[in-house]
Amino acid sequence: MQQPQARKPAVADTLQSNFSLDPLFRPRSVAIVGASERSPWTRSVKRNMGVTQFQGRVHMVNRRGESVFGQAATASCAAIGELVDVALLLIPASSLTAALDDLAAANIRNAVILSSGFAETGPQGLRLQMEVEAKARAHGITILGPNCLGFANFAAHSAVWAGTLQARSVVGNVAVVSQSGAVANTTNHFAHQQGVGLSCVISTGNEINFGIAAAIDYLVDDAATKVICVFMESVRDPAAFTTAAANAFARGKPLVVLKVGRSEITAKAAKAHTGALVGDDRVFDAICRQFGIVRVRSIEELVVTADVMAKVGPLRGSGVGLVSISGGLCEIAADLADAESVDLPAFNDETVAALRELLPAFATAQNPLDLTAVSTEQPILMQRVIETIAKDRSISLLCHLFEVPESQEDTSHFSLAALEHIGKGVAAAPGPVIVLASTMRAVSVSGREIIEKNSLPYVSGGLELGMPAISRALRWLELQRRRSTSPRGAVSGAATRGGPLPRSEFEAQQYLVQFGVPVVPTAFVRTAAEAAEAATTMGARIVIKIASKDIAHKSDVGGVMLDLHPEDVRAAFDGMLATVKSRCPDATIDGALVSPMRRGGVELLVGVKQDPQWGPVLAVGLGGIFVELLKDTSLRLLPVSQADVGEMLAELRGARLLAGHRNVAAVDVGKLAEVIARIGQAAFALGPSLETLEVNPLLAMGTRIEALDALVVGR
Amino acid sequence: MQQPQARKPAVADTLQSNFSLDPLFRPRSVAIVGASERSPWTRSVKRNMGVTQFQGRVHMVNRRGESVFGQAATASCAAIGELVDVALLLIPASSLTAALDDLAAANIRNAVILSSGFAETGPQGLRLQMEVEAKARAHGITILGPNCLGFANFAAHSAVWAGTLQARSVVGNVAVVSQSGAVANTTNHFAHQQGVGLSCVISTGNEINFGIAAAIDYLVDDAATKVICVFMESVRDPAAFTTAAANAFARGKPLVVLKVGRSEITAKAAKAHTGALVGDDRVFDAICRQFGIVRVRSIEELVVTADVMAKVGPLRGSGVGLVSISGGLCEIAADLADAESVDLPAFNDETVAALRELLPAFATAQNPLDLTAVSTEQPILMQRVIETIAKDRSISLLCHLFEVPESQEDTSHFSLAALEHIGKGVAAAPGPVIVLASTMRAVSVSGREIIEKNSLPYVSGGLELGMPAISRALRWLELQRRRSTSPRGAVSGAATRGGPLPRSEFEAQQYLVQFGVPVVPTAFVRTAAEAAEAATTMGARIVIKIASKDIAHKSDVGGVMLDLHPEDVRAAFDGMLATVKSRCPDATIDGALVSPMRRGGVELLVGVKQDPQWGPVLAVGLGGIFVELLKDTSLRLLPVSQADVGEMLAELRGARLLAGHRNVAAVDVGKLAEVIARIGQAAFALGPSLETLEVNPLLAMGTRIEALDALVVGR
């Protein structure tokens, strides 16, 4: 790790509270420091201010006080003599600290720094960045950047943006925040192409004192933003991020995240790119599930998902109705719905009867609904059908497949009439409707006019991207409904228990019992006689295990004997001790544990491990081949509630095993989740000195849940 | 099933051989029968002939001989008095048979019928369709349609097409064949938007005597076509389809298929749409693997996959190099590559050294390669980097992320210079390169000019769709290399053996032995004494199973006893018979089978089942939870070779179990595949009277492969 200092979590992700960020993102006046007609940055920032119709004051500042594009300049910010909300610093990295002094003198609290050449270039750049950070902290200046493109706030008509902006940008409700300037620019371009309106784009770059979490906090409060899109390489302040994510979810604003780092190769690439450590991707995936973050894998998915989520409000259920004028497109849509777990319920009888009235005899009144070619002669059918289906109680969202023409050439009388009728149908429909393009279509200026004229809830992303986006929206809305009606439940904020960690399997078992975790009856014995005595009361078959802090893998050294008759335990104890002593002559042997032998049921693995970035992470999996061959585990950050664990169990591919299987009884999943949550509680209470806690197996047989084993390892 | 007749496999999918289809798809003259200025079809077909620059003769025919758009018409085709290649019939369904007589009189061998109102509308339409079919057969007329949009042959500058065509269609190497007219039209539009050139679009509709298979055969021979795209609901002639697919693969033309019917809801929708039965989707999936068909799920995937495959020729390997000017985009690309199993190997030392020379010190010479912002100042870097990486032996395909500007607005001096240098790099590169847009981008007319000017192998589909498309192309090319170096191997074309099916488990086992399938030693015994005698030589533990044709589930009625000591077999035999007789008083009991008890190893399930559409299908799966809970089986049409079975085993999610696991030895997979292929051979030889043959379990322990059970059921 070349740049250890830059990556540690910042104490504070931002210096200002959310509302005081308005001067940064909705400035009334901007100073361009280092402004010059020869600078492409000055030109492009000026141009973009025009594109966003920025009405505030722009002050030019440069050393010589040379006028810029005919506008007089001052030699310093202090010399401006007016209140300035944001300073854009277009000056060499080496002059930055002096420039910040000037800002402080002018009482400017916000700066945008585009320049690269900081932490991302190596140790020297990192030193420079730390100097700037210290100076900003001393002056209380919030810095966007460095190594960023600035921001464009379309909704507020302001921009300090060095990327490209399209002359007639679509203003809308989707905000984009990105650690990468190029990705921010590409996302903006793609959204523009698709006619997806943005509220703002913020490029955070190296995040000296303003990062992703602060941007999310700001946008959750931003009335112009309905959906927040994030691109990130690394989470620099994990606690601030999860807090911001939880807040966004609680406030009902979807957070759609494209975070790279799924593959090892990406982790290497990210380190080369900005020195960022991407972290354990499976943990981040789990955090997304836990905090209701919608995770996507590409810019296309990011934009189309956000578009759908901005257009689909709260729904009463998850049933989707599909309508198209083509049978073939209905079928493609139905297959994609199936693949993406989007439910297309049957229409109810009333709807079917009403559709039969409307449609010709050879049409079939079913979901998905093929309007047949008749609709090309009677476009009013589309309006009637929307009105009819939207009344159906089993349909929570109606998706009408239709295209907005791109050019004069593909604009027909039919398509214009159809879109008008669809618009009327949408307006009259009691429930939510979206109009989805069959394939991804660019939205032209003339297309936008048609959309606006007919107030169409148009999603141009096409079926391939639109159907997964609908699925993500439905899942997120379900989670909103579920968590609002049955909240997560108590999560054990149990204070750290303090004191030493359990030092042996026996102590670990006793520790779990204190948290209400059922543990298999276990006797700690030191002699064969004690073992034999303990065994007599335990049942028909007995297990004995060696007890030694020095032996991690007991069965590898003959330290586990299964399925013993109670009368054989005495001899087995002696035999086991002899074997283990001969194989591990240096190990201190404390004695053995005696337990009844359990058979049948479903075995689970429950483990807690400290993640270097996120802290203690709970893993739950089904034992045997599920964990070993299929890597079928579910993760969550601690603390967790029983409801969280219920979601974890439902995620497992082998979840069906818990529902009973051949001669195995169905497991009481509620009780199982409760026991696992208690194990999590017990691990969480051990605090940061815990490295791992593992129960393997946790046996589940109907309503009997029992830890057969326990292991605690300190850091 | 409302329309049983229309769905049975046609005897012949087409009446003509491939080359004689040129008059249909490359006509020199077309007659429009029923032409009228008032008909929107006449207008749109005329317009589309203009768009494709059709240079042949167009004859107008209508009953009254009224001139059309100022062109004289005849009252019949026979009256034209010249050779006509294709007649477009724009006449009411009820007049069609008479019109076909007129065509025959004029010696016209090809007709396009757009009208709907046939089999897709119900029994009456079906009757009409069958009349037309009979008439066409009698006259030897090939019919495209009915219920279709015709065809547009861009490469041959001809069209009889009633859909919309863009004025400046891109001509290219991708052919599109579709059973749905709307899907054909939408696909053409999407390809146009993406700048993907098509050779032709063929809409087959109800496929009276010209179907998908015949279209594929024609296009395999079509020099203008490099990749064949297909949309279909149903396979009307399975044998013709697999033959055409095998031919396309052998000739090195990728066949990319979007077939609907994955979900039950789609199956219902398809039946409503055209009365088509979609068939068992898992079987179709298996056929795609078996015949090297690339299957996709949407129009976007269809077009982008075809685009990549048309631009990527044969490769020496599967290593991909990635280059971008943005670190963030590199990371998104690397994650997608990982998700889609696209290998991004490390550059070799020479490449790394050469890249270090070219790039600034803070850049990292790794794959994926972030050129850093330096490249915006020195676009020539892109050329040099392409030349350098393309020489690397571990890189078989280089993918350079870059966008072609869409509009004047996003055209910068930099982007034009960069694209010029990329073009030069591609031209100089010794290996294949594609230029991939970071996100899906529409290609404008000005964009096309830039692409052509710089001869860019540009894929506009973006990373989200482009990376899976690259993955599919790589897998298909791998399969081409593998099957050309080690062909499928002998597949048992064994003639049907004839004679009765094996009637009992014992006969089934003996039958398998004839095909070289190792079967566990088994004695058929009638008495307890025989059972005991057989058991003495068989080993330490014995299994006995009831032998009765009347009992299908032996263990349910106490008809299986496991793990017996040989000396206990006599008593067990008597006990088992008594139990079974009491539970199944009406069953005829022949005796019992005695075998040694096997333990350990990996259990597989091998089954053959007649598919109503495709014939005998072989299923292979791992026993236990893999089959029962995870439905983890692989399917193939019979006959299969050992190499086919090897591919099946590799597909299983639990395939790692075969590689050895804990105390289980690795299985000799070659031998296992051979035995399974022999089971397939045995089943195939039983001919159509077989309903199912099942070996469950087939035990695999190291090199010992042994059928422990066998069941044959006749139809």
What does this structure look like?
The first copy, chain A, has 715 residues and is α/β, with parallel strands linked by helices. Chain A has four domains: 7-309, Rossmann fold, CATH 3.40.50; 312-485, Succinyl-CoA synthetase domains (Rossmann fold, 3-Layer(aba) Sandwich); 521-596, ATP-grasp fold, A domain (Dna Ligase, domain 1, 2-Layer Sandwich); 602-714, D-amino Acid Aminotransferase, Chain A, domain 1. The first copy, chain A, has 24 helices and 28 strands. In chain A, the strands form five sheets. Chain A has a seven-stranded mixed sheet, with helices on both faces. A six-stranded parallel sheet of chain A has the order 3-2-1-4-5-6, with helices on one face. The longest helix of chain A has 24 residues, at 462-485. The interface between A and B is large, with 85 and 84 residues.
Short description:
By secondary structure, the first copy, chain A, is of the alpha/beta class. The first copy, chain A, is 38% helix and 20% strand.
Unreliable spans of chain A: 1-13
Rg over alpha carbons of chain A: 31 Å
Oligomeric state of the chains?
A: homodimer
* Largest sheet composition of chain A: 7 strands, mixed
The chain-level mean pLDDT of chain A equals 91
- General shape of chain A: flat
How big a fraction of the residues of chain A is strand?
15-25%
Largest interface: A-B, 85 and 84 residues
Helix content of chain A: 25-40%
